[in-house]
From TrEMBL:
Name of the protein in question: Glycoside hydrolase family 71 protein
Signal as UniProt keyword: yes
InterPro entries registered for this protein in UniProt: Glyco_hydro_71
Keyword Transcription recorded: no
Keywords associated with the record: Signal
Organism: Zasmidium cellare (Wine cellar mold)
Signal peptide extent: 1-19
Amino acid sequence: MLPLLFALLSALALQTTHAATVFAHFMLMNSYAYDEGQWKTDIAAAQQVGIDGFALNWIPPNCQGDESWAVDRIDDAFHAAEDLGFKLMYSFDMSYTECDVYWNQTFMQDMIVKYAGSSATYRWNSNIVVSTYGGDQVDDQYGDMFFQGLKDRMKSSNAITLVPALTTYSMAAQTDPSKAAKKLISEYPSIDGYFNWQAWPLDVDQNITASPDLAFQSALKNAGKTGPYMMAMSPWQYKDLNNGNPLDAWVAYSDMLFPKRFQQITANDQIQPDIIEILTWNDFCESHYIRDLPSQDIKAKDYVELGDMGAYVWGQNHAPWRIIAKYYISWWKNGSPPPITMDQVVFWHRIHPKGTICTGGSSSGIRNNAFPEDAVFAWALVSESSTISMSVGSNKYWTFRADSSGPAMGMIPFPAYVSQSGVTPEVAIVRNGETVHTGKSSQPISSACAWQNFNPVVSLVGDGINSGPSASSY
Ligand SMILES: *[C@@H]1O[C@H](CO)[C@@H](O)[C@H](O)[C@H]1NC(C)=O
Ligand SMILES: *[C@@H]1O[C@H](CO)[C@@H](O)[C@H](O)[C@H]1NC(C)=O
């Protein structure tokens, strides 16, 4: 009896220490037009996917111009989150190298304390969790002493658990994981946990591995740190500031990144982080948003001004990627894959061949532009054994099999010749010789392009399609 009880208790303890919490990175800059109702809409859409909270990324409100409105948006966000049982944490953006006013401990402390009593404040072992983007790049402003100072101020009344994303260490870990992790622990004794920001292969034509994640996680553990290990998951990375500087235009090899990265915590079970953070909910300019596209109507509550970068964002819907996120999140949280009740094929592609020179954008200077494959990628989740058939232009009826045992992936290359008028990919789900669902991409692939664009468009064939991008069936 006793050994059995003990085994049961320890199994229970194991279960409860596996936190399995999901955050999504939220760019506060893009909430300028939000009211509380809009926050609720976003939060409900995130909860539909299994996301438990937003990490609110904001820059110092007086860094460049006046961004003090962000303080009011945060207030609305907390009210909305409290009503919907959602969590929020700050992600102080410390990456800006030129600010009129940088982050300072007094202001940060005030902003943390302001919501210390809120049910929406995310806590770890009763401490308030504070995250960052950076803190290691602007030497004369931040660094370990700065973090320690903030922690000391908070210690007596509202202790914090510090989980920063120190990007130079995350980047270094791509080549030498254990060295970078050791260096992090020795140079940042103030940290309690770590957020490994690097969710994309770093300037290499390779699939991402979990080695850096494993190294950071075990370094934290060996150092006796009590904070969470947070792992980043992202579907894509492409940005073009179009300023003539080749350093400011890049794409990361992301073709099948989203499902493959998720598989590291589910199917392959290579690593068990405490928290995952999806990069991102709404960073449109880096092409890794999973939110619906914002409105272009200046009166809308989710109006976002994207400037030149809108040229590669407008029309490039990513919402069906949330189906992929939802599936793996459910698997990760429950420890087993969810039953498949619908037939859904999510597929994505870029809208011009990578060699095409477009009229606008950084046509010749996009770093890593040879890495992406000119292909349409598909992720199929079907309730019964099916053939998934894909066609694009002169490439017709490429097939792969899928069944109810789990997701299946396939692809079809762009045809060798893509006309200016373009070809639109088409996907069908075929079962027992009958086409049960068929559909086209929302955008063609064309060799006539007004703007260099390595941001893909994502489409869905199958169930849930008629309910639109915010479909509750997602
Ligand atoms: C601290 O930051 C706040 C917000 O940017 C700013 O208003 C304030 O002037 C700063 N204080 C100092 C001493 O720099
Ligand atoms: C990434 O992995 C897939 C198999 O899962 C493989 O087909 C593909 O070639 C790999 N990509 C690179 C750049 O090695």
